[in-house]
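[audit] Reproducing an earlier prediction to check determinism. Same input, same settings, fresh worker. If the tokens differ from the archived copy the diff job will pick it up downstream; this log only records the rerun itself.
[audit] input (167 residues):
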Amino acid sequence: MRTPTVIATVTLGASLLAGAVVASAFAGNSTGAGGAQWLTPHEVQLKVEALGYRDLTKLERKNDKYEIKATNADARFVKIDVDPVTGAVLKAEVKGDKDTNAKPTRGLTLHQAQVKVEAIGYRDLKEIERDDDKFEVTAIDRDGRLVELDLAPFTGEVIKTEVKRNN
């Protein structure tokens, strides 16, 4: 083979491999190290709640874990890192005590908001967080675009959509 042909072949092969790696990274982290299937956000919520964590206010998919903000069994705010394949808590960090004078959270739970978002066609949730007056969700829409949504806290109705990346 001639040198230009070899260089072109190697360059094309490297480009295809890089494209596959980038495409899989944007596909939603459905597999972890060793090709193991990631738990869905719903499955992670169920596992964490079964361990005694409550009042989840944030769930975010990171490179190699789920990050969750919740209240532990001692009513303390915590940030926990969760294994994406097994649902085991990898690390729990206490962030402070729960304000006993604070108003109780009303409206949808994090899980209910997630179910509403998925029911209207969004998938591969990257992050869902409850603020005082809305839920903020990052997900993939029906057209394959990465979007950020604001949801009404009582109904789950989409009140704002912002496209972050086209497919």
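[audit] rerun output stored. Observation attached for the diff report: Residues 3-26 form the longest helix (24 residues).
[audit] end
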